[in-house]
Design brief:
There is one protein chain. This protein is an alpha+beta fold. It has one domain: Alpha-Beta Plaits (2-Layer Sandwich), CATH 3.30.70. The chain is 42% helix and 15% strand. The protein contains 5 helices and 3 strands. It has a 3-stranded antiparallel β-sheet, with helices on one face. α2 packs across α3. The longest helix is centred in the N-terminal third of the chain and has 16 residues. The N and C termini lie far apart (81 Å). The model has no long low-confidence stretch (mean pLDDT 88).
Length: 121
């Protein structure tokens, strides 16, 4: 009986420690400007368990630090999709996408081009 309890406790401890409280991940998220950056990072940080979220405007890479015991990448992606930004393999609904500011319409080539132009001096 004592051996069974010991083995059970060891299995529980292994499962508990298998999840990382400071997991790191990165994902591609579409956007074009600093308003997008703010929206993407806010959606990520509003996900319970996300400790850090930094989105790069030029590379479209979102770097995350999160607690795997409280959330997962799919939940974070769903929160980003809900505010209107596409992730690598999923698209935001048209309703969510249409809620973003006109300046942030990253699917529109004209808007993308306007953000890529260098200001004339």
């Amino acid at each position: 009986m004592k051996k069974i309890v010991t083995v059970a406790l060891m299995l529980i401890a292994t499962v508990t420690f298998a999840q990382n409280k400071n997991a790191r991940a990165s994902m591609e998220v579409d956007g074009v400007c600093l308003m997008c950056k703010s929206r993407i990072e806010k959606a990520s940080l509003n996900t319970k368990g996300v400790k850090s979220a930094v989105w790069n405007v030029k590379t479209h890479e979102l770097k995350l630090i999160y607690d795997e015991r409280k959330t997962n990448l799919e939940t974070i992606e769903n929160n980003i999709l809900a505010v209107g930004h596409d992730v690598k393999e999923k698209k935001a609904t048209d309703e969510a996408y249409n809620s973003v500011h006109p300046c942030c319409k990253y699917r529109d080539e004209d808007v993308k081009g306007a953000h890529n132009e260098t200001p004339k001096q």
